[in-house]
Amino acid sequence: MNGRLLSLEGISGTGKTFYREQLEKSIKNRDDVLFVKEIFNEAQEGLNKKIFSALYHTKDRFFNMGVPLTETMLLLSRSMYKYESTIKKALESGKTVIEDRSIDTIALYQAILIAQKNGGNPLEIAEKIYSFAGSFRRLPEKTFLLYGNPGLAISRAEKRDGIPYKPDEAKLLKAVDKFYLIYADIHPERFIKLDIGKENSEQILHRMQDVIEEKI
Q: Is residue 64 very low, low, confident or very high in pLDDT (cuts 50, 70, 90)?
C-alpha cells in the first residue's frame, strides 16, 4: 500500500473532532486525503449499524456491558469493517487516511476494563489487543495524542453531550488519559504528543499539518 495511515487519539473532550474538522477545512479541495469519523459521528449503515446496535444497546458511553472480552471482539469487528470497507481501499490508491479514534482506543480502554473484570496487567493486555488487530489490518504510522488536563476535557464533553459523567465514568477517563501517556512513552516513534493544557489550538493544528504534509 502506498498511502499513509494517521490517527487521532485521546479521551473525550480533548478536541479530536474539532481538530479533524479544522484539518478537513484546511485541505478540503484535495482528493488525496481521506478523513474517517469516530463511531458516534459516522453513518451507521448495513453491517456496521448492526454491530453498533449490539455494542450500544445499553446506552453505555464506553460500551461496557460487563463482558469486556466480548465487547473487545465486537469493537474489533467494527474496526475491521471500517477498515475493509473504506480505509484499505483508500490506502491502496495512495491516499493519506486520518482516522478519528483507531485501534489504540480499543486497546487502551478495553485493557483497563478487562483488567478490572478479570485481572492482569493493563499494559500487557493493551499490547496484545493492538498486536492481534495488526495481524489483520494496517496500523497507524503516526498517532496524534491529545492529552493533559482531563478535568477540562471532561467538562467539555459534558457540555457537548448535555449529560454529566458519573463518578466511575470520570474516573475511567482520567485513568485512560494517564494510560495513553504511559503507552505513548513506550512507543515514541509513533506518537506525537499534543498537550491541550500547554499548547493552544493554533499550535496544535500547525503541528498536525506539518506531520500530514511530510510525505504528501
A: confident
Cα 165-168-170 angle, rounded to 5 deg:
45
- Per DSSP, the three-state class of 94 is coil
**Most trustworthy range by pLDDT among 5-9, 21-25, 55-59, 63-67:** 5-9
Q: Residues 13-34: pLDDT tens digits? A: 999 989 999 998 888 777 899 9
Domain boundaries, the chain: 4-212
CATH 3.40.50.300 assigned to domain 4-212? The reply is: yes
Decide: 26 and 33 in contact? Cβ < 8 Å. no
Contact 205, 19 (CB under 8 A): yes
CA 9/CA 20 separation, integer angstroms: 11
